[in-house]
TrEMBL record, chain A:
Any Pfam family matching the protein: ABC_tran
Membrane disposition: Peripheral membrane protein
GO molecular function: ATP binding; ATP hydrolysis activity
Top-level taxonomic group: Bacteria
Keyword Transport annotated: yes
Name of this chain's protein: ABC transporter ATP-binding protein
Gene Ontology CC annotation, any one: plasma membrane
UniProt keyword terms in alphabetical order: ATP-binding, Cell membrane, Membrane, Nucleotide-binding, Transport
Listed InterPro entries: AAA+_ATPase, ABC_Ni/Peptide_Import, ABC_transporter-like_ATP-bd, ABC_transporter-like_CS, Oligopep_ABC_C, P-loop_NTPase
Family label: Belongs to the ABC transporter superfamily.
Keyword Phosphoprotein: no
An example Gene Ontology biological process: peptide transport
UniProtKB/TrEMBL annotation, chain B:
Molecular function GO terms recorded: ATP binding; ATP hydrolysis activity
PANTHER family xrefs: D,D-DIPEPTIDE TRANSPORT ATP-BINDING PROTEIN DDPF-RELATED (PTHR43776:SF7), TRANSPORT ATP-BINDING PROTEIN (PTHR43776)
Family, per entry: Belongs to the ABC transporter superfamily.
Keywords tagged on the record: ATP-binding, Nucleotide-binding, Transport
GO biological process: peptide transport; transmembrane transport
Protein name: ABC transporter ATP-binding protein
One Pfam family matching this protein: ABC_tran
Residue ranges of domain ABC transporter in the record: 8-254
Record organism: Sporolactobacillus shoreae
The keyword Nucleotide-binding appears for this protein: yes
InterPro entries: AAA+_ATPase, ABC_transp_ATP-bind, ABC_transporter-like_ATP-bd, ABC_transporter-like_CS, Oligopep_ABC_C, P-loop_NTPase
Length: 348, 313
């Protein structure tokens, strides 16, 4: 129903390295709607950050976007010059990078770093921009912002730097906000405060958000839809409800099982067995094959296509093929299914 | 616990930073705690409350403004000779919060991890060195074949694991883990937490585990200290603290943990802590066995009563 602000179609990104070509993103497709929050979750190294950096064309020198298309408001991002990209970045599309220190200038006062994009893109006066910078620092929860705005990045704690980066990203009221682990360095109370702030701004301005996080609790709180990545691909995508209560891909099952629940004893935490896949020589079948307790013979040789489960829910696993044997998901996942059917009725 | 060996004692630790104008920042303002050998103490609290500063004082990256830190019976401020300093560095390692900033971008991973092995002469030969490095990479869930790569070729979470491997390389007694898992996905968090626990058992390691993710902290910590604005407001056994938080800040912190359950998240509300002047007066008093709360003398009885009542219900 709602219109699309961003559309990725079969995007492939690779890096040249001494050891060979690293296929970091291998055919990622998704649409993002106006005013929507899409959470990107998945294994460390699965290509979440690289996917996001492709959208704003800020990849390292040894990277190339080999195939696919990225449309922002219908315009082809991949055909734009770096100059055109510079005027889009920071103004229409903002990104909060995963390593806050790398996106702050260590020799510039933080107030100036927040004010500059407002002077540049919104043509505010210096005085006006400075006033708003202090206001933003307050909104992201920096105590004594009237005094501390003059400090340099190294004078702040890890989480405070992260919040300064968030303030910079929000400064120009972007249409699209890409947030790469924005709250990872924050304690839960400030995290909650930042999420409330982002939601607030989203409601007011209709901002679209891509939210990368490892914290499935945060996903549950922010996401309209969720995409689960593994080895450079989206293995499952759906509404938050579908991913949390009707997950179909064994990797998604593994992720959900790893979440520590409130009242378990000190038994070992569930961790997905095995090592992450080799992205220099990706396997020809399903990349999750060797770690998948539910793997079928077919997974070894053939890449699973997307199976559609609802207008919004897709999963790439051969388990959904009609020829596949019926498998029982792990008990904690079955409990999630039960929660869903209890709420909506329908098959147990 | 009394017959166990106290490995680290922090007594009256203060660390203030002075600023160009407008006074000083009291990052750590008089904190006290012990860590027993083989134990994990979790240190949690608001961003900016002084956790990293505490950790950095313990590994001697900062000089405390005041107070004492005693490691293995020795006051670390009195370590003078080069040999003792070297030994201290080997025994007390830190895993840093910002994985990227703490790894030298011009060094290959094998040399980042190998540095400590070289400095402390822990390898018998070149081969032994390589063997150890490969073993460490495998231990932290990285591909040993990637030893020849540079830090920027890794994802955020992979870089964090390089930092863990580097700390483990010198076989320390105490590791200050500054948010070692926050950059990792849950499955790898689980792997690392299981790994840290396993290494602890095998090598009798002691951890100060700084974090803000309370659900993981709970798994790894024997005891937890909650900090707020440079002060410890509550300290106790993990289970006790989770079930019977007493200080208002601890309550608000626990109530803000998001659950991987959207149906619950929609309706859940959190307790918001309103800070009042004077909240941080007083000192830690024991209100139940091993359970300490920041309080003034005249508040202690009320807290004891409150804990008793909450345990009854
Ligand atoms: N500059 C580079 N050169 C070579 N390989 C790279 C480079 N940058 C990233 N990679 C590789 O690309 C893959 C995807 O990395 P990316 O940073 O997107 O992971 P991620 O999903 O964001 O992980 P994390 O959750 O750990 O941040 C990783 O395997 C990483 O090693
Ligand atoms: N080098 C410094 N100079 C001045 N102030 C500093 C310095 N380092 C830290 N601070 C300040 O001291 C306080 C405590 O910082 P610290 O890094 O210990 O916090 P933290 O508890 O680790 O927070 P986080 O969870 O965000 O990492 C903060 O207010 C911070 O701004
Ligand atoms: Mg990343
Ligand atoms: Mg810190």
């Amino acid at each position: 129903m709602s219109e699309t602000i961003l559309s990725l179609d079969d995007v492939h990104v690779s890096f040249d390295s001494l050891n060979g070509k690293v296929h970091a993103v291998r055919g990622v497709s998704f649409d993002l709607h106006y005013g929507e929050t899409l959470a990107l979750v998945g294994e460390s190294g699965s290509g979440k950050s690289v996917t996001c950096r492709s959208i704003i064309r800020l990849l390292s020198k040894n990277a190339s976007i080999d195939d696919g298309s990225i449309l922002y408001e219908g315009k082809n991002i991949l055909a734009k010059s770096q100059r055109e990209m510079r005027s889009i970045r920071g103004k229409e599309i903002s990104i909060i990078f995963q390593d806050p220190m790398t996106s702050l200038n260590p020799t510039m006062r933080v107030s100036k770093q927040i004010a500059l994009p407002m002077i540049h893109h919104l043509h505010l006066s210096k005085h006006e921009a400075m006033k708003r910078a202090i206001e933003l620092l307050k909104r992201v929860g920096i105590p004594n912002s009237e005094v501390r705005y003059k400090d340099y990045p190294h004078q702040f704690s890890g989480g405070q730097r992260q919040r300064i980066v968030i303030a910079i990203a929000l400064a120009c009221n972007p249409k699209l906000l890409i947030a790469d682990e924005p709250t990872t360095a924050l304690d839960v109370t400030i995290q909650a405060q930042i999420i409330e702030l982002m939601k607030d701004i989203q409601k007011k301005n209709g901002t679209s958000i891509i939210f990368i996080t490892h914290d499935l609790g945060v996903v549950a709180k922010v996401a309209d839809r969720v995409a689960v990545m593994y080895a450079g691909k989206i293995v499952e995508i759906g509404t938050a409800e579908e991913i949390f209560y009707l997950p179909q891909h064994p990797y998604t099952w593994g992720l959900l099982q790893s979440v520590p629940t409130a009242d378990e004893a000190d038994e070992e935490l569930y961790a997905i067995p095995g090592a992450p896949p080799d992205l220099i020589h990706p396997s020809k079948g399903d990349a999750f094959y060797s770690r998948n307790p539910y793997a079928l013979e077919a997974d070894r040789y053939y890449e699973p296509p997307y199976f559609q489960l609802s207008p919004t829910h897709f999963a790439a696993t051969w388990l959904l093929d009609e020829r596949a044997p019926k498998v029982e998901p792990p008990p904690s996942i079955q409990r999630r299914y039960a929660t869903f059917y209890k709420k909506h009725g329908g098959k147990p | 616990m009394s017959d166990q060996n106290v490995l680290l004692q922090v007594k009256g630790l203060k660390k203030f930073f002075s600023r160009e104008q407008k006074g000083e920042i009291r990052a750590v303002n008089n904190i006290n705690f012990d860590i027993v050998e083989g134990e994990t103490l979790g240190l949690v609290g608001e961003s900016g409350c002084g956790k990293t500063t505490t950790g950095r004082c313990i590994v001697k990256l900062y000089h405390p403004t005041n107070g004492e830190i005693i490691f293995d019976g020795k006051d670390i401020a009195r370590i003078r000779s080069k040999r003792d300093q070297l030994e201290f560095c080997r025994n007390v390692q830190m895993i840093f919060q910002d994985p990227y900033a703490s790894l030298d971008p011009k060094k290959k991973v094998q040399d980042i991890i190998g540095e400590g092995i070289d400095v402390h002469h822990l390898a018998k030969s070149r081969e032994d060195r390589n063997h150890q490095i490969r073993g460490l990479l495998a231990t932290v869930g990285l591909n040993p074949e990637h030893a020849g790569r540079y830090p920027h070729e890794f994802s955020g979470g992979q870089r964090q694991r390089i930092g863990i491997a580097r700390a483990l390389a010198v076989k320390p007694k105490l590791i200050v883990c500054d948010e070692p898992i926050s950059a990792l996905d849950v499955s790898i968090q689980a792997q690392v937490v299981n790994l840290l626990k396993k290494l602890q058992k095998e090598r009798n390691l002691t951890y100060l585990f700084i974090a803000h993710d309370l659900s993981m902290v709970k798994y790894i910590s024997d005891r937890i200290a909650v900090m707020y604005r440079g002060v410890i407001v509550e300290l106790g056994d993990t289970d006790e603290l989770y079930h019977y938080p007493i200080h208002r800040y601890t309550k608000s912190l626990l109530s803000a943990i998001p659950h991987a359950d959207p149906y619950k998240e929609i309706n859940r509300s959190r307790i918001i802590y309103q800070f009042h002047e004077g909240d941080l007066n007083g000192e830690l008093h024991e209100i139940g066995k091993g359970h300490f709360v920041l309080s003034q003398d005249n508040q202690v009885e009320a807290y004891k009563e409150q804990l008793k009542n909450e345990k009854k219900n």
